[in-house]
């Protein structure tokens, strides 16, 4: 059995309750299970995970020890003074919003109870046994037991991890061992706990700082370690009579991040070393787990590939060949070099590969094209490809885990920001799509979904997804919330969120701008918006907002812009170039000082980030280009929109010092402008920073996210 428990952060939060009345429910952080390739659920194949973005160590490296000491003391003092000033400002301002906060919180909790608390925890069946997670506990039940009898295999509270949530679970093939990763909100690193199952489960090993892990056999576990936000070592640990731990693989290139994955048929364990643009895979034969890993294909600049296995053939999801979009290819295990790769299926232009699932006789590609979702079902028996369009309201897939690759049905969930997840099944035998009706989920019928295309500065058409109440009159008077990201080839998150539905019910219009730099239209869409093309994303965002206003969706004085993490680059840049288009901006853990971050190579992720932003240290042209759009570098006295920023004290991705300095500089520029001008109706924007003591770079529990 292989499955992962996916943690929903403040950007994607749900909650579950225990189905068994005799078990007391408590606060829960876990929501959903993903399949074996859990790392590919949150990022497109070949790209890093969204929560790995940004380097974060503060301070500057200075050769002189004396100067370094003075600099560090000065920097720490400045940081403390800025933080104290902002906390005092927040304490003065926040009481103004308490009545509104109380009303919104009550409404969100009502919607949360209505749409998510009744959803079941995913069940993972392994023969007669069914495993599931609830409220920080892992349970075992029998498949044919209708009375709700369960055994508790593991509890975070009992083990002394009351504040941790379960991030990933792996059960050994013979079900004698269970490996679990535990993570807290305030830490980037997870702890792996190995439990020996039986009548009295026993903890056999605790391994700190683990990122990914898989069982090669019933008593051999492979895992990667994480240090300073990097994963570069793979270890093997045995649970035989002679227990030992061995280093198996080390990645020498700082641009590459290593994780491991088990093929669906459990034949091979793959060691995957990926940069933003290039990858390399090594195979461990699970029948001989002590043999050295075998190289599939040496890394080739610009070629990304991932491996699956079926009937002594490797199935390769890769960007190799023209065009440089994903294709499914295959090659014999014995001769796996790219000269032997044969094309099985190629995607259409401007198509995004969202997910890929392998079965014994078929595979399914989950795809996006022009904002619509559909499936490509590829039969290895009949050599046919069937394309199935999914409901037009759907914006997001969530694939369920299928531990048995011989199953005849593929299960997944569809949702949108305003539509709760609905379960669907595709039957290979019946060759049809079935909507599952396991529990009653209220149907959202009064929300209209519109898909638009905005013409950017260079005539490129940029997709926009718009949601609004069908019964709304005079849309130009309604408030509009625009969302943007545009980096790393990552799509905007369009999964269900209670706060989005609440806004629709209160008359808001929601717009999602799929600008270049993101991944909505495939790999070329990302490439056309990174490095020396970053300004294209800014032009796309401006064109999207202007089109929305032209079509009667709100107006500038009722328009707000929301962005998180790397989305802060484009949102902050728009505030500098076209502040008149928006009235308010909401930023969560924003990346707002690209230039200074990319100039500090001693930071753990700066080198690998060069494939996204460029290398300003070695390329003066690149430095000037980054400086031309970097939000912090381009603040100037003018009439800015109001800005609300949430930052995290323990954020290891975006340094808090940089956010503090950005806020101080922005506030000073707005005040300078107000003093210099005396126009009628002139106003001073609110610029507010809320520094959260808990949470880490957009990761927070349901309770904390409600407060935010």
UniProtKB/TrEMBL annotation:
Residues covered by the Peptidase S9 prolyl oligopeptidase catalytic domain: 495-672
Pfam family, any one: Peptidase_S9
GO CC terms: cytoskeleton; cytosol; Golgi apparatus
Record keywords: Cytoplasm, Hydrolase, Protease, Serine protease
Single GO biological process annotation from the record: proteolysis
Peptidase S9A N-terminal domain residues: 147-432
Function, in words: Serine peptidase whose precise substrate specificity remains unclear. Does not cleave peptides after a arginine or lysine residue. Regulates trans-Golgi network morphology and sorting by regulating the membrane binding of the AP-1 complex. May play a role in the regulation of synaptic vesicle exocytosis.
Protein name: Prolyl endopeptidase
């Amino acid at each position: 059995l292989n499955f992962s428990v996916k943690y929903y952060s403040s950007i994607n939060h749900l909650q579950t309750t225990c189905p068994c009345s005799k078990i007391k429910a408590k606060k829960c952080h876990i929501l959903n299970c993903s399949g074996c390739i859990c790392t590919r659920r949150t990022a497109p194949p070949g790209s890093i995970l969204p929560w790995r973005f940004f380097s974060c160590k503060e301070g500057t490296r200075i050769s002189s020890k004396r100067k370094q000491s003075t600099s560090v003391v000065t920097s720490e003092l400045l940081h403390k003074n800025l933080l104290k000033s902002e906390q005092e400002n927040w304490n003065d301002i926040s009481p103004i919003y308490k009545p509104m906060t109380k009303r919104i919180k009550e409404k969100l909790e009502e919607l949360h109870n209505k749409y998510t608390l009744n959803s079941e925890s995913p069940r993972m069946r392994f023969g007669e046994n069914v495993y599931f997670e609830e409220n920080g506990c892992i349970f075992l039940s029998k498949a044919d037991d209708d009375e709700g009898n369960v055994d508790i295999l593991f509890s975070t509270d009992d083990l002394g991890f009351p504040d941790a949530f379960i991030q990933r679970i792996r059960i050994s093939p013979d079900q004698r061992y269970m490996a679990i990763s535990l993570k807290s909100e305030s830490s980037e690193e997870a702890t792996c706990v190995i439990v020996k199952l039986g009548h009295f489960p026993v903890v056999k090993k605790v391994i700190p700082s683990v990122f990914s892990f898989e069982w090669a056999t019933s008593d051999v576990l492979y895992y990667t370690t994480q240090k300073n936000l990097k994963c570069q070592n793979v270890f093997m640990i045995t649970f035989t009579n002679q227990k030992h731990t061995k280093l198996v693989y080390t990645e020498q290139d700082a641009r590459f991040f290593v994780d491991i994955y088990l093929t669906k048929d459990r034949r091979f364990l793959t060691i995957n070393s990926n940069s933003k643009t290039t990858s390399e895979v090594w195979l461990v034969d699970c029948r001989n787990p002590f043999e050295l890993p075998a190289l599939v294909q040496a890394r080739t600049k610009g070629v990304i590939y991932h491996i699956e296995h079926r009937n002594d053939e490797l199935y390769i999801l890769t960007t190799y060949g023209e065009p440089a979009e994903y294709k499914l290819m295959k090659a014999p295990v014995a001769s796996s070099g790219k000269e032997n790769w044969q094309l099985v299926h190629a995607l259409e232009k401007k198509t995004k590969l969202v997910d890929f699932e392998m079965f014994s006789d078929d595979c399914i590609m989950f795809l996006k094209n022009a904002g619509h979702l559909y499936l490509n079902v590829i039969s290895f028996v009949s050599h046919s490809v069937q394309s199935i369009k999914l409901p037009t309201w759907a914006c997001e897939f969530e694939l369920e885990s299928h531990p048995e690759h011989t199953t005849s049905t593929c299960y997944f969930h569809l949702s949108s920001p305003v539509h709760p997840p609905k379960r669907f099944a595709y039957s290979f035998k019946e060759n049809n799509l079935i909507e599952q009706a396991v529990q009653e989920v209220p149907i959202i019928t009064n929300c209209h979904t519109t898909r638009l295309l905005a013409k950017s500065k260079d005539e490129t058409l940029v997709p926009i997804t718009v949601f609004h109440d069908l019964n709304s009159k005079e849309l130009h008077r309604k408030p509009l919330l625009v969302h943007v990201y545009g980096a790393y080839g990552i799509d905007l998150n369009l999964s269900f969120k209670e706060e989005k539905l609440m806004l629709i019910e209160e008359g808001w219009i929601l717009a999602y701008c799929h600008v270049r730099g993101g991944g909505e239209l495939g790999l070329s869409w990302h490439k056309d918006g990174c490095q020396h093309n970053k300004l294209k994303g800014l032009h796309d965002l401006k064109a999207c907002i202007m089109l929305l206003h032209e079509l009667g969706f709100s107006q500038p004085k009722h328009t707000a812009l929301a962005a998180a993490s790397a989305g802060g680059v484009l949102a902050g840049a728009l505030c500098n170039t076209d502040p008149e288009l928006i009235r308010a901006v909401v930023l969560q853990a924003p990346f707002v000082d690209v230039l200074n971050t990319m100039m500090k190579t001693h930071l753990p992720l700066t080198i690998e980030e060069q494939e996204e932003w460029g290398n300003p240290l070695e390329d003066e042209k690149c430095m000037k280009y980054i400086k031309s759009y970097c939000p912090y570098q381009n603040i100037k006295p003018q009439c800015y929109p109001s800005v609300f920023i949430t930052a995290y004290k323990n954020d290891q991705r975006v340094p808090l010092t940089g956010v503090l300095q950005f806020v101080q500089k922005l506030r000073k520029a707005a005040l300078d402008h107000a003093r210099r001008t005396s126009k009628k109706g002139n106003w001073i924007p609110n610029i507010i920073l809320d520094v959260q003591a808990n949470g880490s770079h957009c990761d927070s529990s349901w309770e904390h996210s409600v407060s935010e």
